[in-house]
Amino acid sequence: MRKKVAILITVFPIIEHFLDNFFRSLQQQSYKDFDILVINDGLKNFYDYKKEYDFNIIEYQYQDTPAKNREFGINKAIDLGYDYLIFADVDDYFSTNRIEESIKKLANYDLVYNELTLVDKNGKILVENYIHSKVDLAKFDIFKSNLFGLSNTGIRLNLFETHLKIPLNLIAVDWYIFSVAMLKGNIKYYFLPDAITYYRQYNNNTIGLTNKFDQKNIINSLKVKKIHYQEMVLYCKKNKKNKALEIYKKKLQAVLDLEMKLKDKITLQTYLSIVNTNFENINTGWWSEII
User: Fold this and answer.
1) What span, in angstroms and rounded, lies between the C-alpha atoms of 78 and 256?
2) What are the residue ranges in the chain where pLDDT is below 70?
3) 3-state secondary structure (DSSP) of residue 61
4) Contacts of range 164-170, beta carbons closer than 8 Å, 24 or more positions apart
């Protein structure tokens, strides 16, 4: 039986200048049997793009926070009965095999994630094959860091047993979504090294990737990780995920302890020096610099 595939995107005014590049990337995909679910957060002329590009586009007008827009889109995909959901950001673009390779592996895996090549706002390559070249995949652990982004991941939608509810105060929305999904247990995931998301690095990018951290980066990452652990503790309590609850409680306490220590300027500078000197050894994904 044919599996129903959807690509989930959010469009809004400040990313409109990337839309043509994004849709051309989808036109060039080797696998084309997919729908595009569009959450339109205030882009008034999106109809022009629907006319220009020959896709089956299902558009919803919905204006809320980035987290709630994603929540709405995922839940719509569940309601519409899709089997596979491919996440995409419209300020990025993809190698021609990304969708095909994702679909192939989702036949045997619950979640797939593909390689990232970092580019600037104009598409100039900054770092090729970031995950393969910079991240210690052998040490990756969803409890400590994240590699499952909202532009390089595909899932079987049965990972979510019910509608998803995303807390309003989250910063790392992707980390929360996939952490919740992984709590289903015995989840199989697979890294696609030859499928690439060209991941733009620019001012409006929520996270960005760097090999050099300053005080601002560390304090922001600490905040992200603290909020994430707080919300995962609440989720685990509510849903009686007792084994994971104990892990997240310990992680949260460690971050709270680190937060107190880094209030001392000398300690903060020492910490920064250690992280920057040893980053290649500690990099297991986003937020791994908070250890």
Assistant:
1) 36
2) 1-2, 203-211
3) strand
4) 164/71, 164/74, 164/75, 164/78, 165/71, 166/67, 166/68, 166/70, 166/71, 167/67, 167/231, 167/234, 168/65, 168/67, 168/68, 169/227, 169/231, 170/67, 170/227, 170/228, 170/231
The tens digit of pLDDT for each residue in 138-182 reads 999 999 999 999 999 999 999 987 899 999 989 999 999 999 999
Instruction: Give the amino acid at 92.
Output: D
Q: How far apart are CA 135 and CA 114, in angstroms?
A: 13
Beta pairing class for 5-11 and 125-127: unpaired
Q: Strand locations in the chain, DSSP E?
A: 5-11, 35-40, 56-61, 84-87, 93-94, 111-119, 125-127, 153-156, 189-200
Instruction: Specify burial of residue 48 (Cβ count, 10 A radius: 0-12, 13-18, 19+).
Output: exposed
Name which of 48, 8, 4, 41 is nearest 26 in CA terms.
Answer: 8
Judge contact between 120 and 202, C-beta under 8 A.
yes
63 DSSP β-pair partners: none
Q: What is the pTM of this model?
A: 0.92
Kind plus residue range of the DSSP H or E element containing 178:
helix 173-182
| 173 C-beta neighbours (distance < 10 Å), count | 21
- pLDDT at position 205 is 47
φ/ψ region of 56 (left if φ > 0, alpha if ψ in -120 to 50, else beta) reads: beta
Alpha-carbon distance 286 to 172, whole Å? 9
